[in-house]
Amino acid sequence: MVRAIGPLLLLAHVLVFVVSIAAAAAPVRRPRCDAGDRAALLAVKAAFNNASYFQSWTPDIACCHWYGVDCGGDDYDYDPTDGDRVLSLAIIRDDNVTGGIPGDAIARLTRLQELMFFKVPGVTGPIPAALATLTALRELTISRTALSGSIPSFIGDKFTALQSLDLSFNSLTGAIPASLAKPPKLISIDLSRNQLTGSIPRLLLSKAGQQAFLTLSHNNLSGRIPAAFGAVNFVQIDLSRNQLTGDASMLFGSGKKELGSVYLSRNALSFDMSELRLPERLSFLDVSHNAIRGGIPAQVANLSNLQLLNVSYNRMCGEVPTGGNMARFDAYCFQHNKCLCGAPLAACH
């Protein structure tokens, strides 16, 4: 029994030696970090006075592992010289990050695809012109900050890969630039809760394809809803709380198969609602506080997905439809119209 141990030990030593040789020959796995991107990120950190948000941004940690930074793919790479770059920078939910957006520093992240400032109320000033060089950008979010100034036209002119734009909950002023209609892949725009004025660009999201999302609520926009919106395949559109006038019927129709949410409340819209054909997938419809006339289409009772219906404070007449899903909606949804009647309102005469 003792003699049998010798060969086994010899075999074990051989295996250890072979594994050691293989490990020595294998390339070393190192954390990825492009030197130029690292320097750019450190400039961002310095511009924000080394706020506590950036406490993980230290020399002993590769920049692709810093909080809010993403280089995509695996966390490690066999070859640190193969050009791996920072693809995403997100600065979110921090009251200690203060100052203007350091455009010159961020512009040095030339492969950047996603840039996000979210819930950082200390970020002030305009959108810097230096960001125009980030032509690979796919997603731009600057939301719930103290951002001011106008929406620069370069967002539409230069960001040809842009898919999503969110500049909501800021203090932006001026008009929506017509150039935002140019990016061929842009499908989602949220400019809500600002102080924007002027009209809605005629061809906004005209290239969006099968799904489009538009939120422009809580601004001071005026004029008519573009007729070209009749050809846009909206999933959600929110134009509420503006000063829009005229017709909105082009947003509806049996061909709008993806349309789920329409919010048009608190404008000055005027059209005949009885002529509308509502999409079967419609889940949320709020057209309250306008000057809409006609009656409620009987079809609404058969929309099984409908969770919100509000036509209050308009000039509508006729009997409220019955049956189907109508029991979900109380008198509040229909009140203050010219002559709507029937349950849950007073009986028709």
TrEMBL record:
Q: What class of enzyme is it?
A: transferase
- Which is an annotated GO molecular function term of this record? protein serine/threonine kinase activity
**Highest taxon in the source lineage:** Eukaryota
Gene3D superfamilies listed in its UniProt record: Ribonuclease Inhibitor
EC number(s): the record gives 2.7.11.1
Q: Name one Pfam family in it.
A: LRR_1
Supply the alphabetized keyword list: Glycoprotein, Kinase, Leucine-rich repeat, Repeat, Serine/threonine-protein kinase, Signal, Transferase
Q: Which residues form the signal peptide?
A: 1-24
> Domain Leucine-rich repeat-containing N-terminal plant-type, which positions?
36-71
> How is this protein named in the record?
non-specific serine/threonine protein kinase
Tell me the lineage of the source organism: Eukaryota, Viridiplantae, Streptophyta, Embryophyta, Tracheophyta
